[in-house]
Design brief:
binds protoporphyrin IX containing FE; 85% helix; mainly alpha
Length: 134
């Protein structure tokens, strides 16, 4: 499956999960999960959607191996981060237990963003120009 489509499907999986948590908070009148909700939707949905668009519009097929690394890094880090935040704010596990995983996941999200910048910067100028025109 093309990398932009993989990002797109993951993005909407996060959208559905995040909205589910939002509806649960609204219905239960218990907003304690809002930080988890915000990051499921922003790191999971919005950032994955932006990566899908960047792959579709600017990177299209170039640097496939690096694109795969960036995809799995962002998805793994986002999953650990959002899952960890749900467990933290639901009070299922103490902060001390979750902190190492949350810390590593944060660095993973950051590294995936840096990798994306790297892929954009090293794009051949002609490829970047033609994608912007088409
Ligand atoms: C089914 C749709 C949604 C429902 C029912 C919902 C519900 C909620 C609720 C109840 C809160 C807690 C408000 C508070 O106590 O401060 C909240 C916060 C938040 N939501 Fe949603 N939400 C939905 C969709 C979204 C979407 C699509 C996004 C972003 C793409 C989003 C981003 C946020 C953010 C960033 C916060 C934190 C705001 C703050 O810092 O106070 N939500 N949402
Ligand atoms: C390395 C990744 C990230 C880390 C470690 C991180 C960490 C945090 C922390 C510690 C807070 C304060 C939570 C609190 O109120 O107790 C926060 C809030 C917030 N973050 Fe992030 N964040 C990250 C990525 C992002 C991204 C990529 C977005 C948006 C695209 C985002 C949007 C927000 C928003 C809207 C809030 C305020 C609402 C809330 O408290 O839930 N964050 N973040």
């Amino acid at each position: 499956m093309a990398i932009d489509r993989k990002f797109l499907l993951c993005a909407f999986a996060y959208a559905i999960a995040g909205m589910g948590v939002g509806i649960y908070m609204a219905a239960s009148k218990n907003h304690s999960l809002f930080v988890a909700h915000a990051h499921i939707l922003l790191v999971g949905f919005v950032v994955s959607l932006i990566y899908a668009l960047v792959h579709k519009l600017w990177i299209a097929g170039s640097g496939r191996r690096l694109a795969d690394v960036q995809f799995y890094l962002h998805q793994l880090a986002a999953l650990v981060m959002t899952g960890g935040l749900v467990l933290l704010y639901a009070g299922a596990l103490p902060e001390a237990t979750l902190a190492p995983a949350l810390g590593l996941a944060s660095v993973g999200v950051l590294l995936a963003a840096l990798l994306m910048v790297w892929m954009i910067v090293r794009l051949p100028r002609e490829l970047a120009g033609s994608a912007a025109l088409s």
